[in-house]
Every structure is written in C-alpha cells, then in structure tokens.
From TrEMBL, chains A, B:
<dbReference type="InterPro" id="IPR016164">
    <property type="entry name" value="FAD-linked_Oxase-like_C"/>
</dbReference>
<dbReference type="Pfam" id="PF01565">
    <property type="entry name" value="FAD_binding_4"/>
</dbReference>
<dbReference type="GO" id="GO:0004458">
    <property type="term" value="F:D-lactate dehydrogenase (cytochrome) activity"/>
</dbReference>
<keyword id="KW-0285">Flavoprotein</keyword>
<dbReference type="InterPro" id="IPR051264">
    <property type="entry name" value="FAD-oxidored/transferase_4"/>
</dbReference>
<protein>
    <recommendedName>
        <fullName>D-lactate ferricytochrome C oxidoreductase</fullName>
        <ecNumber>1.1.2.4</ecNumber>
        <ecNumber>1.1.99.40</ecNumber>
    </recommendedName>
</protein>
<dbReference type="GO" id="GO:0006089">
    <property type="term" value="P:lactate metabolic process"/>
</dbReference>
<feature type="domain" description="FAD-binding PCMH-type">
    <location>
        <begin position="124"/>
        <end position="303"/>
    </location>
</feature>
<keyword id="KW-0274">FAD</keyword>
<dbReference type="InterPro" id="IPR036318">
    <property type="entry name" value="FAD-bd_PCMH-like_sf"/>
</dbReference>
<dbReference type="GO" id="GO:0005739">
    <property type="term" value="C:mitochondrion"/>
</dbReference>
<dbReference type="InterPro" id="IPR004113">
    <property type="entry name" value="FAD-bd_oxidored_4_C"/>
</dbReference>
<dbReference type="InterPro" id="IPR016166">
    <property type="entry name" value="FAD-bd_PCMH"/>
</dbReference>
<dbReference type="InterPro" id="IPR006094">
    <property type="entry name" value="Oxid_FAD_bind_N"/>
</dbReference>
<dbReference type="InterPro" id="IPR016167">
    <property type="entry name" value="FAD-bd_PCMH_sub1"/>
</dbReference>
<dbReference type="InterPro" id="IPR016171">
    <property type="entry name" value="Vanillyl_alc_oxidase_C-sub2"/>
</dbReference>
<dbReference type="InterPro" id="IPR016169">
    <property type="entry name" value="FAD-bd_PCMH_sub2"/>
</dbReference>
Length: 557, 557
C-alpha cells in the first residue's frame, strides 16, 4: 500500500513515483460471502455470526433462539387470523409440487424451519410450521388469493437478511419464500435495463451484469444472500447510493402480487413513463406489507473501468465533514463511496478481524475515512485523487492515509469498513440503530449515547454489560450506524437506549430508520420520524390494499 | 468552432492543436428566457410562440383561442361541482388580501384571466372567473378545505407551461396559482439539499444554487417560467435526467396540501428515510389530482467545473444507437446529455432560427447528435471527448461534427436542439407526441407516421395541411418527441394520428407519455400504456384521497 505522509506530499513527485498501476477485476469489492472470520458459519452464504458469548442470551438451550412471543409477551397473536388447517394444506399441496412446500407437522419441533423462522441477528424467532416456495408468479397469486379469502397471515421472505425482524414470522404466519423465483428474465446492454425475478440473489445479478460490462446500481454487505426483490421491498441503500442514487430512482418497474391475488405489473423497459400515478413506488420500502414483489425492472450502470480506494485518518468529526465537502467538489463525478468510522469501531474490529488483514495505518486516530472512486479512465482518476489527497494533507485536514495499490489491498481496506457490523456483534450481542441525521449532527448521537451509558454505569470492562457504543456509516448519505456492542442482551440496556436514541434523533429532525426499515423492532417508534397526518395516510393505504391485514402482520405500522 | 474531419482525425495531434480552452461560466446552457426568435413575445419569460399563421385556427377572432368546451363538445361540465357564488367570494375575500385574488365578475369578459385560462400551446382554454394566489401554505389549506366542503373544483397552476392541457381549467374551475409562494426556504451547501416553496421559478432556483456552487438536478426549455413544484407535480424529465436521474430519486421530501386541507409534510433534510410508505412519491407526476405541492426538498448537484458540447452527424438511426453505446462506455461519468435530431427537425429549424445562429455543419445529414459532457476537470474531459470522437470518426460511425470552442458556440449548438419545438409550431400548429419506446424501436414511429400521412395525402407543400413529421429527443432516456408540424389544426389530421400513434407505441411496449404527463390531451389513452389492474389502483387512490373529485377534474384518469 502507498502510505501518505506530509513529507510525501511536500515532494509531490514522490506520490506519482510510488504509485503503481491498479488493474480492475470484475469483482473489486469484497463480497460478504468471501469473508472469513473468527466466527463459525451458520448460513451457507451470509457473513457468519454464530460467535462465542451470549448473543443468544434469550435462549432455552445452548443453540436455541428464544421465541419473539416469549421475549415480547405484550405482543399477542391476532385471533382474527385463522390457524392452519388440514384443508389449507390440502389446497397448497394441490397447486404446489413437493419441492415447493416445507411443512413440519403440528408438533413442537420446528427445527427444520429454523433458517426461515429465525432472523439473521438471532434476535427474533417465529413459530411457522409451513414454508411455501412457489416457482411461478401465478402460484403466488393463487396462494395469496387463498390466504386472503381464508384470513391466513403471510410473511414474504427473500434472503432473510433483514435487520429489524421484518422477514420472519412473529407467530404462526405462513412463510412465503421467493427462493424458487430466481431467474434473470432479460437484459438489454444498450439501455442497461435488467429484468429479473425477485428471488435472484443480489450477487448473482451483479455477477451476471459484470459479464455484460454493467453493475447493479446498489451494493451491500449481505449481497451474497439478499434478494433483488428484498432490497426493493426494504428500499435498501448500501454503499453505492452516493453515486447511483436511491432505488426510487433506478427501479423502472415492478411486478407485484396484491393480497387478493391480483398481479399488478409495470415491468416495462422504459426509463421514462408519465402515465398516471407511479404505483410501483408504494411497494419500494413497504417491507411486504402491501403485496409481494415478484419481478423487478431496474436501470443498471456501466461497469467502471478503474477503481481506487484510499483509507484516511483525521483528528475530529469536523474534519470528516471538511474532507467530504472537498471530495464532493474535487472528486465529483468519480466519487463512489465516502464512509467514515470512529476509533472505537476500528478497535472492536481489530479484536475480531483475521490476522492476514493488517491495519493499514501505523497509528490510531480519532476518525477514519474510506474513499472510493470509480471512473472510466484510470490515469484521470489517479490524477484527481492524487491532487485531492495532496491538498488535503497539505492543509492538514487529513493527517495520515494510504492508497490501495492492487486488488488485494483494495479488498483489505474495504474489509476494515465491512467487518465492523460483525465485530460489534461477536462478543455477545449488539443493539443496532440505523439513523439519518443532518450531517452536522451525525456523530453527536454516538457521543450522547456513550455519555448516557457511562452515567447508567453500564459501559466498561466485564462484568459491565456494554463493551462500546461505536459509530460508522455512509457520510455521503447522512446515514449513521450506531452499534452498541454488548456482552449480553438485557432489558436494562434496552431501556437505557430506547426511546432515548429515537427521541434524540427526532429532536434533530432525523429519521429513526435510514435504510433498515421499521419491521418488528421499530414499528412502535414511527411517530418519532413521521407526523400524524402521514401515519394516518399510511394506515389508510394499508387498510385499503390489505383489508384483511394478512400481509406481514405485527410489523411496520 | 472546431470542425471534425477524418483528415483531422487521421492526424490526431491536429485536434489537440486546434483545441482552445473553454472556461465555464455559471450559465453555460442557453436558458429559454434568452432565446430571441422570429416570433413576437406573448409571455414575459417563456419562449415566445405568437407566430404568424393559423396556430389559433380554433379562434373566434384574430387573437382568441377557442374554448376547450367548444372544441371538445363531448366533454361536459360535471354538475356535481357547485358554481361559484357570492358567498364563496366573500369567504375567499375574508382570508386573502386583494393581491391574492383576481376575479373578473360574472360577465363574459374573461380576457384579464387569459394568461391563466389558456395553455402555453394555445390549444386549450378554460372559463374560470377566479384566480386565487395565496401567499402562504396555511391559506392554501383553508381554500382547499372550503372548496372540498362546498364541492368547488380547483385547478392548481404553477408556471402554466404544461403541454397536455393539465394546468388550465376546462370549465369554470377555480385556478389556484402558486405564483405568490416563491421563497427559497434553506440551502445546505454541505449536503446539497435545497428546500423551497413550490412556486419558485426553476431558473431562479438554479441561479440561486449556482451562486452556491450547485445546480438544480433538472433542466428544461421552460425553465424561465416553470415552477419547482410544477416540475415535481408533472415528474418532468428534461435534459439532465441521463446524468442525475429522475425526480423520484432526487426529491427528498414534499409538503402537500390535501383536498380536505390537511397539510402533509415530509420536508426533511435527509437523503435516506425508511420509516413507512414513501408517500411523497404519489404526488410526483400526479399532475395536481391528489393534492397541491406547496414545498419541495431536493438533493442538488455540485456545479460542474467544465462543460463540452459537440454536434455530430451520422448516416442512419442505427449509427445513433452505436454512438450512444460508445458514449455511455467511454464518456461514462461525464456524459450529461445525449440528444438526437432527424434531418427534417433541422430543416424546419433552419427556416425559423435567427440568422446569427449559423448551422454548425457545412452539409446536411440524415441524423444529428448533440453530446454534452460535464465534469470536474477540463483537461480530463477534453481528453476523454477527443479520444471518443477520434475513434468514432475513424470507425466511420460519425461522419461529420464540430466541438464548441467557447460559450457562445456552446449556446449556439444547444440552440439547434432547443429551437425545434418552437420551429415545429410556428407555421400553423403542431401535434406533439412525447413517447417512450425501447431504444431499437425509437425512431420507427417517425417513419410509420410519415408513411401514414403520405398515404392519407395530408403531407406536402401547401395546400396540404401537414408540413412535416419530425423526430428528436433524449436518446439516453428512450424518449422521442414526435412533432407533426401543420399549417392548421384539423380533425382529419388528428384522426389520422390518433389513436394510431398510441396503438403503435403500445404495440412496441412503450409509454404514450414519457414526460409530459396525461393531462386533458391523453386522459382517454392511458390504457395504451397501463393495464386494467393498474388503472383500477389509480382510480382507487384518486377516490380515496379526493372523494369529492375537486382536484383538477376532467384530466388524468
């Protein structure tokens, strides 16, 4: 790696001399499925999290996650929903093949459905006995129509990588998995428009596109497991939003099965269409509460020819903002990621990350920044980044830094950002808050939460329960991830953090969910971000389109 | 201007030698308000269109536009709507100042409201006696609440530059103008987020932003008149969509007054917010049929440091597509516009454009392309464009071309694209179709329409009524503008074109309205683009939120 230093900057030529060419392979960024960590693997493709410690402190046994209904005894099953009967099973068997149904029987042994009943964080667990995995949109239509008539509650499930308990049942809801709806439908290399089934894994879609010189306009850590339909249903943001914008802009059409079984499709190949209300927008971010997304038409982006990654150190959060403004201006059209991490994030990650990923800087600093550029001309991008870094170091905004010189180094730098969520969780548990705040106030939340935890005598060495409250995230999007790493889950920690965090975010006119959604975790807190008239309109919509309330109940609003 | 030639290309150095530096002023692109043409000016700021000829062939007198109700006798006033009474006027006078009300009295003399009753194309004319121009959101809320209770129909009106008759009344609807709601609320140069009233003129917003090193993420010919709220209400696309994406992505929040007077606001400063359904999306492109947009929060873009414009000639439409694919790949992140024009567009424009705007090429060609690049480094952009053009000419895809060498030349090149709409209209009238089509089929519509007009014996020299059917538009967005320039409006031409054009677009899975919306003109044709379930959902929404149907009636769906 090329280390940056003020000496190097003073002799500007040095930078150019040291710089080696970096050729860009199809997969320049680390995919979560490639991560190797200290943890044992739980799921086939997703970042492993079965860590030592008490992450399953709600458990009945050493490997059991406690049921959501036991952890939240105030949430009751709505008896408006019918319980699954043998007639229902008979119907599902009549329209689906054996490969499309998983049923545990009526006993208490739900283990074979654990992967479907439990969320990725092992924080929520439902009690569904039935998973349906239909292979066609028409079958989904038949299923929903039947469930609606019979008042059987349904949870749509994509890759089940949700972080707010939205993709697993709370009680005995039927799980409707999109796993078997996983075909690329078509791709037009001239317009860059991709049409695919909702169940296509994001990484598979991206790999397919890369073979055709394009990329998916969204990237995130869970790409090895999450579905294209799932990222739309949750309006995922991720690492490329700064460059390619939100899914509300890039999704061109959706195919959706409504609760009554109607198939509503706007799966066209058009970048512009102003004929009537843009209905598809309602389903982007609705977390499967209005209908099930079964197909996606999306504008993809040309594959960048060159990628650079730089890892920088700054003295304080004010400097983070200064570097961001400077990068927006000087790197402008080639800036593709601007991530920041605080010292505590990196300290946690150091304990957890594999030993063959050396920390890129010699010393520790209060804040770190990862900048990625993507462009069509390597020499131009190098020159822009070099000029930018020289001036940032000369003016002493940036105090230390390094630039990746090959793909391995590039991946290693990304790893220091991408391993933070896992590192926060691996020592017991984690309380995750994903919030939007005006940029100037972004980091203040981490500071007040640390203060609050100290005052409550919860933060410190064992046996105190909280290890650290760390902050990192997508500065470019005003999106902070506050992770409170704990040695165990406890109501005392939860009550110290909530609703305090939501109240603080609300007082700064932020959003209590920047990209993770509401799900089960935040459904009671929407009023911290949304006004009464807005919530009323949402309830109206939900009631209007899902009058029997069968879609993903106990969540959202 | 720097002329491109294959000789120049063969001796590559020549290009570099000839190239002079082009410094970029704050207003590099031609604003419509600066256009000077052969026409007399009608409105203060918008492109003049009061041309000689029979554009007002529906007129009762030399300067009168015929009433919509007379031209479309099958459309009847809905007597469910109350007629304006003295009590109503008394109420409006009680909440508004004199500057906020224009009332003609009950007589037939509507002239003083012509600017509000007539659309920009002089094709539609309503009969409203009352224009309300409230200065606050609260007053708009009171007005709508009253109108809803009293069943008084309302037409929201921004800059009144709509092209499908959406912004003027059909009968006696009250016009609610946003003209007096025109303040910038705040701008944050760090995040680039602008909040403003809906009635701010687009060009004013853009000028304000340029003073703060930013630009509005949308540009269009009507910028001198159209309102920020209006472009959101119509989901305008314009010239920068290729680069900055659609308003569904860049609008971060809206303040909307609902038909019952409720003020629903999501005017936050957040780039990401996943708490509940994204309600604001419903109002983007709804043409004021669900509520009135009164405030807009939008992500703006850093002002480019360098802009290049090149005007190229190619032999056929296939070559247009080839150049587009090549430009997307090689100009990639700096490509900010890719417009095409056919030979007939330019021939029409040559007759109309002022004499101090020489045609940039020596010969005529079947197709022309205008490429704009915007970036942060002039030298890099020049190098990219140069390499791109050299290879395009060497491979003989591009057969002639020129690059602007200073701002005047740059504006002149843009003029050849921007004057086409006006030129199509100035000899009598124009039938405008703004459609989306898959790229490969985009130009075929112009060919079949010309064929159809010849077969109907309508196209040719006077006295035949049609001068030419020309095609141009935003290739980057799959958006074709088909303009049928006529010597007069006639039912024979209209019946030859409609529904033929819509049927053809539908057969190619296109959209009958790419960016202009449905309005009055296309309301009956939505089923050519949208399916029954979609239309049903839209009608549901309309009924749900505007149960008395007071918002912009006789339009949309």
């Amino acid at each position: 790696m090329l280390k940056l230093s003020r000496t190097a900057v003073k002799n500007c030529k040095l930078l150019s001399v040291f710089k080696r060419s970096l050729t860009c392979s199809p997969n320049v960024r680390l995919s979560s499925s490639l991560l190797v960590s200290n943890c044992n693997s739980i799921k086939k493709t997703f970042t492993p999290i079965n860590c030592a410690g008490s992450i399953r402190s709600y458990s009945n046994g050493p490997n059991a996650v406690k049921l959501t209904s036991e952890v939240y005894p105030n949430v009751h099953r709505n008896n408006h929903y019918k319980k699954l009967s043998s007639d229902d099973l008979e119907y599902f068997n009549s329209i689906l093949s054996k490969q499309e149904i998983m049923y545990t029987g009526t006993g208490n042994n739900l283990q074979e459905l654990d992967l479907y009943n439990e969320d990725w964080m092992k924080k929520y667990k439902g009690q569904s006995h039935l998973v349906l995995k239909p292979k066609s949109v028409e079958k989904i239509s038949l299923i929903l129509n039947y469930c609606n008539e019979e008042k059987l509650a349904v949870v749509p499930q994509g890759g089940n990588t949700d972080l707010v308990g939205a993709s697993v049942p709370v009680f005995d809801e039927i799980i409707l998995s999109l796993n078997n709806l996983n075909q690329i439908r078509e791709f037009d290399p001239v317009s860059g428009i991709l049409k695919c089934d909702a169940g296509v894994i994001l990484e598979n879609a991206d790999n397919y596109l890369r073979e055709h010189d394009h990329i998916f306009p969204l990237d995130l850590g869970a790409k090895g497991s999450c579905h294209v339909g799932g990222v739309c249903a949750t309006n995922a943001g991720g690492l490329r939003l700064l460059r390619y914008g939100s899914l509300h802009g890039s999704v061109l059409g959706l195919e959706v099965v409504m609760p009554n079984g109607d198939i509503v499709s706007s799966m066209h190949s058009l970048r512009k269409d102003n004929t009537g209300y843009d209905l598809k927008q309602l389903f982007i971010g609705a977390e499967g509460t209005l209908g099930i997304i079964t197909g996606v038409s999306i504008l993809t982006q040309p594959k960048p020819q060159a990628i650079n990654v730089s890892f920088l150190a700054v003295q304080n959060y004010e400097a983070v903002q200064k570097v961001f403004v400077k990068a927006k201006k000087e790197l402008a059209e080639i800036l593709s990621a601007f991530e920041f991490m605080d010292q505590r994030s990196i300290q946690l990650t150091k304990k957890h990350i594999e030993k063959d990923t050396p920390f890129p800087l010699e010393e520790e600093y209060p804040f770190y920044i990862l900048i990625e550029t993507s462009g069509s001309n390597k020499a131009h991008d190098d020159a822009k980044l070099e000029t930018f870094l020289e001036s940032a170091m000369e003016s002493e905004i940036v105090i230390d830094g390094t630039i990746a010189q090959d793909e391995t180094e590039l991946q290693n730098l990304w790893k220091w950002r991408e391993m933070i969520p896992e590192s926060s969780q691996c020592q017991g548990g984690v309380y995750k808050y994903d919030v939007s705040l005006p940029l100037k106030d972004l980091y203040s939340l981490v500071e007040v939460v640390n203060k609050k935890l100290v005052e409550a005598d919860l933060l410190g060495s064992a046996p105190k329960p909280v290890i650290a409250a760390v902050g990192y995230g997508h500065v470019g999007d005003g999106n902070l991830h506050l992770n409170v790493a704990t040695r165990l889950y406890s109501k005392e920690i939860e009550c110290t953090l909530e609703p305090f965090v939501y109240e603080y975010v609300s007082s700064k006119h932020g959003s209590i969910s920047a990209e993770h959604g509401l799900g089960f975790q935040k459904k009671n807190y929407i009023s911290y971000t949304k006004s009464e008239p807005e919530i009323k309109m949402m309830k109206d919509l939900k009631k209007h389109y899902d009058s029997n309330g069968i879609m993903n109940p106990y969540k959202f609003i």
